[in-house]
Design a protein that fits this description.
- This protein has about 200 residues and is of the alpha/beta class.
- It contains 7 helices and 6 strands.
- The chain has a 6-stranded parallel beta sheet, with helices on both faces.
- The longest helix is centred in the C-terminal third of the chain and has 15 residues.
Length: about 200
Amino acid sequence: MTTNSQGAGQEKRVVIGITGASGAIYGVRLLMALEAASIETHLVITSQGAVTLAHEMGMTSADAQALATHAYAPQDLAAPIASGSFETHGMVIAPCSIKTLSAVAHSYTDNLLVRAADVTLKEGRPLILAVREAPFHLGHLHLMVRAAEIGAVIFPPIPAFYARPTTIEALVDQSVGRIMARLGLSNDLYAVWRGLDVTDPLVR
């Protein structure tokens, strides 16, 4: 019999989900940042997530899976991340489609991604949903409230502009860095607000 523990000296594990919402770059950049931080990652890409990866980034599922420590098919409900006994530091779904948000909010675990999310919630671990949609109608808002009520963190990837980003990469990194920080993972991908620089003529 094997045991599973994340005691001293063991790498943190983070589960990543990529769905079919626009914004596949958020999931990919998060995988890259976690890999650079030597954090073990467990990836699930939905079928529509694969479509969005190809359309927006010219990447195949295999390309994205190569960035992860472990990757699973969305129908593989026997994967380790489907069980609460498999300890993780938390889970991020980036981007999170409204369909996936609805499934999480209603514990409709018909695929591995949503099952892993449900496990994350039932074990009291952080679940971050980078919901991508605009504008939101009342049904979307109700779903976000319901998900928040059962423990999810609603984290739309809305960039901050106080750091004066000049590239898409900087905008994405701002959100990815904040998501990592919300998981308790220190990083330097985002600018910390230090207050206005009164010596800067542009703020006068």
